[in-house]
Amino acid sequence: MFRVLPRVRRRCEGPRVRRALALGLPTVWGAFAITYKLACPLATQDSMGARIVSSAVFFAVGTGLVLHVRRALLRELRQIREVAGAAQNVLLRPLPPRIEGLALAAGRLSASRGASVGGDLYEVAATDHGVRVIMGDVRGHGLPALATVAAVLGSFREAAHDETELPQVLGRLERALARHLRERSRAEHPSGGGTVPDSPLAEEFVTVLLLEIGPDGDISALNCGHPWPHLLSGHARPLTDADPLPPLGPFPLPADLGVLDCGRLLPGEALVLHTDGMEDARNAAGAFFPLQAALTEAARIQPVSPQLLIRAIYGRLLRHAGRLPADDAALLVLRNDRTRVPCQQAEPGRHARSLG
Predict the structure, then answer these.
(1) DSSP 3-state assignment of 260?
(2) Which of 227, 320, 213 has the alpha carbon at shortest distance from 264?
(3) What are all long-range contacts of 237-242, with beta carbons under 8 Å and residues at least 24 apart?
(4) Which residues of 15-27 are buried (b: 16+ CB within 10 A; e: fewer)?
(5) pLDDT per residue over 64-116, tens digit each?
(6) What is the pLDDT of residues 9-50, one digit of tens each?
(7) What pLDDT does residue 155 have?
(8) pLDDT score recorded for residue 345
(9) Residue 285 DSSP symbol
(10) How far, in Å, CA of 40 to CA of 195, rounded?
(11) CA atoms within 13 A on the CB side of 107
(12) What residues have CB less than 8 Å from 57, skipping those under 6 apart?
C-alpha cells in the first residue's frame, strides 16, 4: 500500500507541473521583456546597435510566446482528436471475426484530415430473427454527424433484437432520428420552441440499408437511399437494381413497407456493403473510383478474405484519388462460411449449389 502512494502522487503531480509550466512560461517571457525595457540601459539608447539589440530581444520574446501557444494548441488538438476517435470507436465498436457462420471485416476512412471521425455507420447483430446488418451514411462528417450516428446505431442495436420484421426495425430508426433532430434543434435554437424553418437541421438525412440473412442464406433488404451492396461470386455485381426508398429524415416512410427478397448468399460467396464515399472518390482527372472493377479484381484470390479485401480496396482507392476522399468511405464485408444450404432449384442467371 505504502509503495503505491508515491506512484499515485507522481501521476497527480504530472498534470500540475504541466499546468504550472503552461501558466509560468508566458509570465517569465513577459517579465523578461518588461525588465529589459525598464532596467536595461540599452533599451533607452537611440544608437543603431542598441536598437538592433532591443529588436532581437523582443523578437526572441515574441517567438517564444508564439511557439509556446502553438505547442499548447497542438497538444489540445491532439487530445480532442483522441477523444473524438475514442468516441467513434465506442460507437463503431470492432466487429467480431465471425457471427453465426459469417466471416466479417469492416473499415472506414474519414474525410476529416487527421481524425477518424465520420458520419458512416455499420453494425452486425445475431438475433433470433437472423443476422441483421445496417450500413448507413449521415449527411456531412465530423463531430456533428457523430451524435446522429449514435442515435441511429443505438436504436438499431435495440430494435434488431426486439422487432420481428425489418419494417418495424426501420420504423424505430426513423422515430429515433426524428427525436434526435428535434432535440438538436431545441438545443441550437432555444428561443424557437422547436424546429426552426430555416435551420440546417431541416436538411439533415441519413441513408440506411438494412439486411437480414437467414440460416439458409436468404437475403431480405430495406433500402433508404443507400448504395446497394455488391455480391462477390466469381465476379462483383450489384445485389439488385431495385429503386431504393428516400433517405430517412426529409420524408416520412410509406405506410406499407415491402421487404425486398434479394436471393441467397451461398457458401463461399461474400457481400460487400459500402457508403457512397467509395464510388464518389475522384482522381486528378475527375474520374470516379471504379469500385465494381476493383472488387472483381480483388475477388480473384479465392477464398475471399474479408480483411485482405478491405486492405486491397482502400489501397487502390488512395492510389486512385492521390489523397483523402472528399467524403467518408466505409466498407463492410460478410462471407458465408456455412457448410450447407438446402437443396434448391437453380435461379436464373445464377448457379445454385449445395456443399456437404
Answers:
(1) strand
(2) 213
(3) 237/292, 238/292, 239/263, 239/271
(4) eeeeeeeeeebee
(5) 767 767 777 767 656 655 555 555 555 667 899 999 999 999 998 876 555 55
(6) 444 455 555 555 555 556 665 666 666 565 666 556 666 666
(7) 95
(8) 41
(9) T
(10) 63
(11) 17
(12) 33, 36
Cα dist from 353 to 4, 100, 219, 229, 236, whole Å: 64, 20, 16, 22, 18
Residue 274 to residues 38, 55, 132, Cα–Cα distance (Å)? 67, 59, 16
What is the tens place of the pLDDT at every residue in 291-314? 999 999 988 887 889 999 999 999
User: Residue 203: what pLDDT?
Assistant: 72
CA distance 10 to 22: 18
Distance between CA atoms of residues 344 and 338, nearest Å: 16
Q: Are strands 270-274 and 230-232 parallel, antiparallel or unpaired?
A: antiparallel
H or E stretch covering 208: strand 206-213
CA distance 354 to 215: 14
